[in-house]
Automatic annotation (TrEMBL):
This is ROK family protein. The lineage of its organism: Bacteria, Pseudomonadati, Bacteroidota, Sphingobacteriia, Sphingobacteriales. It holds the Pfam family ROK. Belongs to the ROK (NagC/XylR) family.
Length: 252
């Protein structure tokens, strides 16, 4: 698919960093995909340098026909700074200025948010209280009200029993260990917990392991794809700078 617009038209490079893969696509302001959706494997125990290098390598085939960058990251992010990255390299991500590093390398302003938050912006209807689950390498969540992101909470790290948090309980390592049947039972349990605690209007479930869901979902629960979610990179730039949305400019 050929690129259709030039940088002057405010196109957006949208990037989704996951524990398993890095994905990217060029979007126009409305979220329409202007290039093919590309992805590459996330290096094992990926460091900040690995991730930045992976982004640069992945977008080599893209023309410089964008002037903003959106990044969804698998961890807690504040003001463009990574605070945690539980599924990447251990002890390498505390207080990493990832947004600044990418802005400087690519030469464009960057907005960096949690990956589930970016996916949420891409998939929700914007009506009432909506929750997004991502079930992949780990377990991610996003909370939105009338289409607005609420402050990100790392709900994956709440304990679900005496020995495990949600990441341990429903993440990919658990899937590989216990198999699809037991994993689906666990996901059912989590959905019931969230239904009781949050009384959401709509729940969206994405991530690589969502394809393994084999039980009937209630009418207000929808399966979404990573391709849908990465379009949230366009909506991210429609939001005003505030407590959880922060623009990082490249250093001159």
């Amino acid at each position: 698919m050929a690129t259709e617009k030039k940088a002057a038209n405010n196109n957006i490079l949208s990037i989704d960093i996951g524990g398993t893969s890095i994905k990217t696509v060029l979007l126009d302001e409305s979220g329409t995909m202007l290039t093919e959706y590309l992805k590459s494997k996330t290096p094992p125990e990926a460091t900040p340098k690995d991730i930045v290098s992976g982004i640069v390598e992945l977008i080599k085939s893209f023309p410089d026909s964008y002037n903003r960058v959106s990044i969804g990251f698998p961890g807690y992010v504040k003001n463009g700074i990574v605070k945690t990255a539980p599924n990447l390299a251990k002890n390498k991500w505390a207080d990493v200025d990832l947004a600044q590093r990418v802005a400087d390398v690519l030469g464009h302003p960057v907005r960096l948010v949690n990956d589930a938050d970016q996916q949420g912006l891409g998939v929700v209807d914007g009506k009432g209280f909506e929750i997004v689950f991502t079930v992949g390498t780990g377990f991610g969540t996003a909370l939105l009200f009338d289409g607005e992101l609420l402050p990100h909470l790392e709900l994956a790290h709440f304990p679900i029993n005496k020995e495990e948090d949600y990441d341990d309980y429903i993440g990919n390592k658990a899937f590989e260990k216990i198999g699809a049947e037991r994993w689906n039972k666990r996901l059912k349990k989590i959905i019931e917990i969230y239904k009781t605690v949050f009384n959401y209007d709509t729940l969206y479930i994405g991530g690589g392991n969502s394809k393994h869901i084999d039980f009937k979902l209630e009418s207000n629960i929808k399966i979404v794809t990573n391709r849908d979610g990465i379009k949230g990179g366009a909506k991210l730039w429609k939001l005003a700078d505030k407590y959880n949305i922060f623009t990082v400019e490249p250093k001159k």
